[in-house]
Prior knowledge:
This is 4Fe-4S ferredoxin-type domain-containing protein. The protein is mainly alpha-helical and about 450 residues long. It contains 15 helices and eleven strands.
Amino acid sequence: MNKNSFIFNTNKCVGCMACVAGCSIENGTRLQVNWREVNCHNKIKHPSLPVFHFSLACNHCEDAPCMKNCPALAYTRDEKTGAIIHHTEACIGCKYCTWACPYDAPKFNESTKIVEKCNFCVDRISEGKRPACVEACPVGALEFGQKEITEEDYITPGFVNIGIKPSIQMIPLRDEHTTPAIENLDAVEISSEKLESYLPKAESKVSLDKEWTLVLFTLAVAGLISWQAAHLFGKVGMPLIPFAIVSVVAIALTSLHIGKKLRMWRFILNVKGSWLSREIVSFSSFLGLTGLQIITQNQIIGYVAIAFGIFSLISVDRVYKFLKRKDGLVLHSAMVSLTAILLFAWIAAIPILLELIILTKGSLYIWRKAIVKKKGIRYFPVLSLVRILCLLLAYILLDLDMVMVLPISLIIILAGEIIDRSEFYYESDIVTPMGELNDLLKKKGTV
């Protein structure tokens, strides 16, 4: 079926940025937040590698992950044009859509604290005109029209195709354009290590300096749920005031990660499609029901609360399904679900469970670090050693019957989990066009 689509010819694009300028002028965007970007393959201009460009904005996908996963329902589709429209008045600035989109289309504006993106020039195309970026292209590399898009239209080196049916036809490079036309016999050979250092360093959307609040929040989620479970089975007490304090701190931590705090209530609107919504709804339900359980001492309420708690742990781990793991692992030691089991086993003093979870987390951690080292990815051996020691010491201290052992042991466990969770963010990234082009260049550089 034909639909409105961009048509991009990689053979014609010269990287002049006229499309970017046209978009900016039409929509009044600031230079720091361009809705359209020209991603250049081989920015280092090495003569033995091909040079081509991708001009990409929002591709208004049929199965748009931004719209599907936005917890605040800030995206809608214009049925007439097929455009995915972002509604600024509904955006909470959580940036989850910037993780979900493989084309780096939603842009977080630091000045407004909300996301914005290409709107397909919906007003223009509704009147039969072409988008401003298309009008601005001087070489005909970027076109627009009614097209029937097939899988073959996505077979272009470096273009991300994850089955979401973007509304763009990529006219692939002709064979003669995949390598330079000029043969430079004097070109200095470049090693893969040097090539890595020469590549442009795109700012990662996932980094510890941005996500430290999420490190603490996710550990607070695991801690509160394991504490409640241990209390439910009669292993420990659970006074209302300490529970309330930790709960408020956890909520405060997650609020620091969003741009529009007064719109936080919109987090709950997309339980049907967004794991982030499910996380917030299930964890909030857990907190409320646990507080009611403590007040009423009703075990039935406690069991319902723990069911919500378990689902919130699953949701937290599923929120990160869009991350591109450097180690390539799906199951890893920093999963919040495993952390909750570890804390429960320690709080409830169940040695056999503690042994099993320490063995599991330790094995997964060592496996992860072995893969990272094999791939030549930077890691921190001293931190890794400390992380392993924290697991071992937690078990050793469990057998010591001393007054100060419990708080010391808890500090050691939490220190190890903070290291593991922090490394999880450090070793993760988001799929972006520039990242895919860099990966492609690395592969070509090692051929």
